[in-house]
Design a protein that fits this description.
The chain is built from 13 helices and 15 strands. With about 400 residues, it is an alpha/beta fold. The chain folds into 2 domains: about 130 residues, NAD(P)-binding Rossmann-like Domain (Rossmann fold, 3-Layer(aba) Sandwich); about 180 residues, Dihydrodipicolinate Reductase, domain 2 (2-Layer Sandwich), CATH 3.30.360. The longest helix has 20 residues.
């Protein structure tokens, strides 16, 4: 039996625990640190409700819980502080992204893990998804030749969650480079076989979401819910099945979203990136896309060929530049995070059992944070920004 200790028992970590259990049916949640005990208990699997103990601190949970591993699923601003503490216990760790939201946190994480035997599996499902791995293998085998350019996109069909749910709290998120692009910068580096070393970025704030509606306004209290495109009834009517909270929610055009002056999530943002290899690439993320506009994937180009894929279409295309052949490969659909969550679950259980190494170790998470920090700084200053290296 695997005894798991959970720090922050929210919806995302609950979904991952279900996947852990598919890999190891005898996994049990043995300890929980979460101030919202009622909410955490409501999410617990029936097998865990009787025996899972709640603790006031991580230290007490580790000392008394007889744990085999830890998982951190708090809100984003607490990932790093708890991960720094977890590094002291040398237990396998599943850590949600972003692993940090500031330079101070990133440096603290780096220092905490330098002398720790704690091995982490960072929640980067895109890097380990089957479609991304297939593309990576083709590129390594020379399908593109030397990879010289990458173009990656993320047209998010559920982007309103960053403006009508708790994600709109900028103090927690620090913007959508940290929330979204942290995934993409990581898999871009994986595909190119090289770290990102310099970034130039731009972002738009408050042009679509945010505004002057009063704070605390929800759809059920609003006189415009019959006409507003973001009301639950209009989201349902307009076919937003792939995204958008279809229940009563905070106003996406309200002061609660923040402002460009005080800090807020961006409507869209882009980055021009340079790799250590000398290659370069571009990345764009858009948060007001809907329905069939959904797209997420990358195109890698070299002299000999092009390899491109899209997770929403579950399709990979390989073009040979110097031969009259093009391959199109279809992948199975219906997989969480495009199959990456299942791969993460296998990695984590294998890590606990001592059967494998993590494919998303803590270093990948910290490197991605440094790229996000550079992108955020560049968008704010209008300058190219060098990415800080790990010590």
């Amino acid at each position: 039996m695997i005894r798991l200790g959970v720090i922050g028992y929210g919806g995302r970590i609950n979904s991952m625990i279900k996947r852990f259990r598919l890999e190891e049916s005898e996994l049990r949640v043995a300890g929980i640190v979460d101030p919202d005990e009622k909410g955490a208990r409501s999410r617990l699997d029936e097998n865990d409700r009787k025996d899972a103990a709640f603790y006031p601190t991580v230290d007490e949970m580790v000392r008394k819980g007889g744990l085999d591993a830890l998982a951190i699923g708090t809100r984003c601003d607490l990932h790093a502080p708890y991960a720094m503490e977890a590094a002291r216990y040398d237990l396998p760790l599943f850590l949600e992204k972003p692993v940090a939201t500031s330079l101070k946190q990133a440096q603290g994480l780096e220092k905490a893990f330098q002398k720790s035997r704690c091995e982490a599996a960072v929640s980067f499902p895109l890097r380990v998804s089957p479609l991304c791995r297939l593309a990576g293998n083709l590129i390594k085998e020379g399908a593109a030749g030397s990879p010289e350019h990458i173009a990656a996109v993320n047209y998010v069909p559920y982007g309103t969650c960053y403006f009508d749910l708790w994600y709109r709290d900028f103090k927690i998120t620090q913007g959508l480079f940290f929330q979204k692009a942290t995934h993409d910068f990581d898999y871009m580096s994986f595909l190119m076989g090289s770290d990102i070393v310099r970034v130039a970025a731009m972002a738009n704030y408050g042009r679509v979401f945010g505004g002057r509606k009063p704070g605390g306004l929800t759809c059920s209290k609003c006189r415009e819910q019959d006409t507003c495109l973001e009301s639950p009834q209009n989201r349902k009517r307009n076919g937003y099945e792939t995204g958008g909270w279809d229940k009563d929610h905070g106003c996406t055009f309200g002061r609660d979203c923040g402002s460009p002056e005080t800090g807020m999530n961006e409507d869209c943002s882009s980055a021009l990136v340079e790799f250590a290899s000398g290659a370069h690439g571009v990345y764009t993320q858009v948060f007001f896309s809907r329905r069939d506009a959904a797209a997420r994937g990358a195109t890698v180009s070299g002299y000999h060929g092009t390899v491109g894929f899209d997770w929403y279409r579950n399709e990979l295309k390989r073009v040979r530049h110097h031969a009259p052949f093009t391959d199109t490969i279809k992948a199975d659909g219906g997989m969480s995070h495009f199959g990456g969550d299942d791969e993460l679950a296998r990695d984590f259980i294998g890590l606990i059992r001592g059967k494998c190494k993590s494919r998303t170790p803590i270093e990948t998470g910290i490197r991605s944070v440094h790229v996000c920090l550079a992108a955020k700084e560049s968008a704010e200053t209008g300058r190219f920004v060098k990415v800080r290296r790990l010590c």
